[in-house]
Amino acid sequence: MHNTDRMDEIKKMSNKGKTISNAKKAILLINLGTPDSYQVKDVRKYLKEFLSDRRVIEASSFIWQPILRLFILPFRSPKTAKLYESIWFQDKQLSPLMYYTQAQARKLADKLGNEVIVDFAMRYGEPSIKAKIEALSVQGVTEITIVPLYPQYSATTTASVYDEVFRVLQTMRYQPNIVGVAPYYQHPAYIKALKQSVLSYLETIDFTPDVLLLSFHGIPLECVQKGDPYQAHCLQTFELLKSALSETKLDIQVSFQSRFGPKEWLKPYTTEVLANLAKKGKKNVLVMAPGFAADCLETLEELKETERETFLNAGGQHYAVIPCLNDRDEHIEMLKTIIGE
Ligand SMILES: C=CC1=C(C)c2cc3[nH]c(cc4nc(cc5[nH]c(cc1n2)c(C)c5CCC(=O)O)C(CCC(=O)O)=C4C)c(C)c3C=C
Ligand SMILES: [Fe+2]
Ligand SMILES: [Fe+2]
């Protein structure tokens, strides 16, 4: 057998579609995930997967699973389904989180050209991390750059993504090389994109904010006490954005939202801060959620609807929420920069 024939033979054997020589690279953006629809059964399925993740709820399964199935899912699913219905992009038949994540992958692909495949997956629900890693592997991809779309690291989010990635790899004979993009809570390109989004939003509103409140998703205080760096990462983002915006003279404050369950979560709670601001006579507030890469239930419903009511009922006058970075060009540029490094 000639050498070239032998090489071809080896290439064919090395597996379906994969070649030895040409390393094919892919980028996989990963966000939290969302139900398939706002029907109660789909929301229930999504909540079940999410709230069964031991990175999210650390309680022993023997105790937690019966509570989840008997109390949480039956009561929370219909309520959450209504909330999802209220924010759903009806014309696109997609949840906002799904719509923006798709758009981010598409626009990043346009920016990066043919050198690399860009795709996205969701930690919970569809498209799953498993389906996407397997599909990329069949296409002959030998290196996957994982981009968890969480600027601030938390075991509840970032670590859960990597847990799932490596669980999928456990079943593969020929594993792609995995490269992880570090949390970017302090990255100049991220701070710059946030700053630009504040400045351009300020142009569009008809009031002068007394306060710009940065609201991050909360986590249980216990997680931080056990070593989760999430709170420190959020506070670092807050400090950096505050200095970047010093010229605006805005009074910038920080809080944590979306508390779940009876335990203490990171404080101060967004809802309490907003009520107190209104009571103290700070009647014009602008809110921003820098921890969310895309608008979702927690921004479009919780911040834009529920917390608006909290604030106005406590005596507030003007209230607005800045959209997340979503598929803005600065955001896609930022993703390109952090992936390039
Ligand atoms: C129960 C514990 C939860 C922890 C801890 C938690 C951390 C956490 N979550 C996000 C980002 C998102 N969470 C979203 C929805 C959501 N979060 C929880 C619970 C916890 N999150 C629940 C039960 C839900 C579902 C909605 C509900 O029933 O309240 C979303 C929105 C998804 C969407 O489809 O729009 C995002 C995004 C972060 C960043 C985080 C820790 C840092
Ligand atoms: Fe007004
Ligand atoms: Fe959450």
From TrEMBL:
<dbReference type="InterPro" id="IPR019772">
    <property type="entry name" value="Ferrochelatase_AS"/>
</dbReference>
<keyword id="KW-0456">Lyase</keyword>
<feature type="binding site">
    <location>
        <position position="298"/>
    </location>
    <ligand>
        <name>Fe(2+)</name>
    </ligand>
</feature>
<comment type="function">
    <text>Catalyzes the ferrous insertion into protoporphyrin IX.</text>
</comment>
<comment type="similarity">
    <text>Belongs to the ferrochelatase family.</text>
</comment>
<dbReference type="InterPro" id="IPR033659">
    <property type="entry name" value="Ferrochelatase_N"/>
</dbReference>
<keyword id="KW-0350">Heme biosynthesis</keyword>
<dbReference type="InterPro" id="IPR033644">
    <property type="entry name" value="Ferrochelatase_C"/>
</dbReference>
<dbReference type="InterPro" id="IPR001015">
    <property type="entry name" value="Ferrochelatase"/>
</dbReference>
<dbReference type="GO" id="GO:0046872">
    <property type="term" value="F:metal ion binding"/>
</dbReference>
<dbReference type="GO" id="GO:0005737">
    <property type="term" value="C:cytoplasm"/>
</dbReference>
<keyword id="KW-0627">Porphyrin biosynthesis</keyword>
<keyword id="KW-0963">Cytoplasm</keyword>
<feature type="binding site">
    <location>
        <position position="217"/>
    </location>
    <ligand>
        <name>Fe(2+)</name>
    </ligand>
</feature>
<protein>
    <recommendedName>
        <fullName>Ferrochelatase</fullName>
        <ecNumber>4.98.1.1</ecNumber>
    </recommendedName>
</protein>
<keyword id="KW-0408">Iron</keyword>
<keyword id="KW-0479">Metal-binding</keyword>
<dbReference type="Pfam" id="PF00762">
    <property type="entry name" value="Ferrochelatase"/>
</dbReference>
<dbReference type="GO" id="GO:0006783">
    <property type="term" value="P:heme biosynthetic process"/>
</dbReference>
<dbReference type="GO" id="GO:0004325">
    <property type="term" value="F:ferrochelatase activity"/>
</dbReference>
<comment type="pathway">
    <text>Porphyrin-containing compound metabolism; protoheme biosynthesis; protoheme from protoporphyrin-IX: step 1/1.</text>
</comment>
